[in-house]
Amino acid sequence: MDKKETIKYYSRMENLDEVITQEEINEKISSIAAAITTDYSDKDPILIGVLNGSFMFMADLIRKIELDCEVDFIKISSYADATRTSGTVRLIKDISADINGRHIIIVEDIVDTGLTVRFLKRRMEDSDTKSVEFASLLFKETDASVGVKIKYVGFNIPNNYVVGYGLDYAQKLRSLESIYRMRELPPE
Question: For domain 22-79+92-160, which architecture applies?
Fold first, then answer.
């Protein structure tokens, strides 16, 4: 199979098991938004979404936060291919907001190795921010993520490859409204 055929084969719905429904996602986002609204009621936070995966979570979250927040995006990459991390982080698109002296909430789709969280925390703190916190829809409890502090977590999940609701496999399956576990992954 060539790369295109491989992606098509592993992206079939028969290879997916629903693990978190759209309703569960909506309920959890409402809960996270309420917590952020309370925690930042006297602050003026900037929410920074990590592209591409966080865009759906970010959009739904910002609509439910009952504060006037600024929004920006950053794009980084830590994946060597469709399913494996490279171990290094590359900055692809930086933020444009002035974050000096501001409260920052970085919005992630998923935290698995903690590599991007550590990178982003250092990068934001180097800009003399007042505070840096993270909101992640999903958190994988892995050996690599031990010690990673995420203030707002939607769901703790096992170490499976998941897609849907912004999460992708080779840029496919992002548009699914629920989150699915891939039963089978391509060989390494």
Answer: 3-Layer(aba) Sandwich (3.40)
